[in-house]
């Protein structure tokens, strides 16, 4: 459903939020290991997200990535839109460019409902919620 870049970004941001809640900064090596992603790939993703304000970073020996309260209020939909665009929330289920209410594809009506449910779920899902569930060991990021 999400691109690999988006999957890694979501996992990394949730991991950083959980690990930095006590003021700690997390380095790329720890993030990569913590979410099971290639180090180089996650570094590029986080560099871009840092420039855009989705996560903060500090350089130097005590540096690393961290999130503040504003970042914890981000929704999964915010992150998906930034990385993968709006296609998940508005695109055709068959990938047709001309699919619309007046020119529907064969699965238009059913897919529109699914798409709206996914959008609603992701817009209601905030980073803080995932951190809380990880802390309660209701969910996990890596086995």
From TrEMBL:
Segments forming a coiled coil: none
Transmembrane stretches, start-end: none
Q: Which PROSITE patterns match?
A: HTH_RRF2_2 (PS51197)
Q: Which Pfam families would you find in this protein's record?
A: Rrf2 (PF02082)
A GO molecular function annotation here is: DNA-binding transcription factor activity
Gene Ontology annotations for the cellular component aspect, listed alphabetically? cytosol
What the entry lists under Gene3D superfamilies is as follows: Winged helix-like DNA-binding domain superfamily/Winged helix DNA-binding domain (1.10.10.10)
Per the record, the domain of life is Bacteria
- What name does this protein carry? Rrf2 family protein
